[in-house]
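TA notes, week 10

Several of you asked for a full example with nothing omitted. So below is the full record: structure tokens for the whole chain, then the designed sequence directly under it. When grading your own attempts, check the secondary structure regions first.
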């Protein structure tokens, strides 16, 4: 099993892909995310990324301690997008205050499109969200791009 994990880590390093590494099979909601930038026979080093897309330093883990390694999941793609667009996300873009009795969602998406602001929309599934720039917008339909 650890040979498979090591191969996944090596592949992610070669392809410059984000990975999520899990240490505890009883807590799959907790993982470390980052880019593998060094690996040897027993250890892996990640350039760690926070859930908000910020660089958080380096983590070194023993490969034998890893329970699972994910690559190219929806969650990792979202963190990668936030990391790639970090300067845009954390710059001060002020959206207009929606007019009274207007639709907050439509007003926000319209202004975000015009100002190229990143929007995160949470879906009915409370563990899922969409993140990106608003590409097009109609009263009942919008399209994001990442």
């Amino acid at each position: 099993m650890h040979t498979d994990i090591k191969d996944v880590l090596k592949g992610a390093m070669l392809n410059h892909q984000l990975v999520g590494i899990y240490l505890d099979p009883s807590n799959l909601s907790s993982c470390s995310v980052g880019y593998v930038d060094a690996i040897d026979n027993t250890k892996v080093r990640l350039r760690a990324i926070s859930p908000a897309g910020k660089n958080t330093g380096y983590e070194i883990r023993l490969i034998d301690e890893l329970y699972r390694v994910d690559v190219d999941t929806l969650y990792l793609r979202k963190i990668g997008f936030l990391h790639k667009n970090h300067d845009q996300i954390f710059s001060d873009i002020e959206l207009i205050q929606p007019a009274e009795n207007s639709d907050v969602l439509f007003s926000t998406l319209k202004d975000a499109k015009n100002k190229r602001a990143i929007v995160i929309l949470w879906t009915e599934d409370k563990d899922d969200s969409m993140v990106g720039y608003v590409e097009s917008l109609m009263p009942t339909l919008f399209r994001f791009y990442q």
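The mean pLDDT is 82. Use that as a sanity check on your answer.
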